[in-house]
């Protein structure tokens, strides 16, 4: 992980708490771990590493000593049976890491005293999913020989942290954003007795196809078709491919009203994109990106959605390009699942498309509601 940032990227990070339109989807993982971001953090998590020996991925490969990183906030509280009863699992998006949730715009409305996930009352778990953050990933050295992990692998390894290491039998809540939202569905259908409630933000239980896979495949193909990629054995980042990653990410993750308001001229857009491209080239790894977006292949919670036993809140923003509200998916799920609720946030110049899930002022009350719905 890069510890020293350029003047431009330091400025980029310094404005993130008040200017979320400047947060790029793929850039999140690296930018949020810089010293400029750390200066803004009001909550100090404990950092932990778990070493998993010879974990066999679904592609048949394994890593002898797989490293998983996770952070925790607050303290476990035990019930009469001696079991942890106040644990909340937060799952990050593609290209992100657990530290994403320490961004003031997310943490302050949720973790502070008297807020829905007050850390004096809840034990918050923030894992870096495999392939992300400080957990094992291709860019650590294995490059394209790293196992081709998928969402089932990622959730199985999260389960190792929660159940095998922390000895938590039932989570109070799982809240996931984007990829983490899909992981939350995987938790619900794979381990239906492991939680009391689910909050799924900015995704759907349906397979990643249509427009969603189109832009993902565009980024993957942009990298792999770049001659500088060299089958994943590049010595420097494939410039043309990563430039396309930056552009496609910007299109997908921001809201149209927000972009129109903040960048009303072509010159303003081009200045912004120049900044994004430079940051992508400096902080984002091509192999990591391919793996992160390819991991959604085979995801399908819809076909087994009736395995979910607990109350669910499905939340989305109306300006989400990746999960547009014009799709019939919510109606299909609500018709089949009586324990689901659906919340659609109207778009505005202040919402930030897919990335609105980092602005907890819009959904803190919804977190409180799903906790209330799932009380004993």
What's the alpha carbon Rg, rounded to whole Å? 20 Å
* Total of domains: 1
- What is the count of helical runs? 13
Unreliable residue runs = 1-38
Strand content: 5-15%
Which percent range fits the helix content?
25-40%
CATH evolutionary superfamily: Alpha/Beta hydrolase fold, catalytic domain
CATH top level assignment: Alpha Beta
Mean pLDDT: 90
**Per CATH, which architecture?**
3-Layer(aba) Sandwich
Number of E strands: 8
Largest beta sheet: what is the strand line-up? 1-2-4-3-5-6-7-8
Main sheet summary:
8 strands, mixed
Stated plainly, the CATH topology is called Rossmann fold
Gross morphology is globular
Describe the structure.
The chain is α/β, with parallel strands linked by helices and 376 residues long. The chain has one domain (7-211, 293-373): Alpha/Beta hydrolase fold, catalytic domain (Rossmann fold). The chain is 35% helix and 15% strand. The chain has helices spanning 7-14, 28-31, 35-38, 104-111, 151-165, 179-190, 210-224, 239-253, 256-262, 266-283, 286-294, 329-336, 364-373, and strands at 46-56, 62-73, 87-91, 123-128, 173-177, 198-201, 312-317, 340-345. Strands 1-2-4-3-5-6-7-8 form an 8-stranded mixed sheet, with helices on both faces. Strand 1 (46-56) and strand 2 form a beta hairpin. Helix 7 runs antiparallel to helix 8, helix 7 (210-224) packs antiparallel against helix 11 and helix 8 packs across helix 10 (266-283). The chain is globular and about 60 Å long. The model is unreliable at 1-38 (pLDDT under 50).
Describe the structure concisely for a colleague.
With 376 residues, the chain is α/β, with parallel strands linked by helices. 35% of the residues lie in helices and 15% in strands.
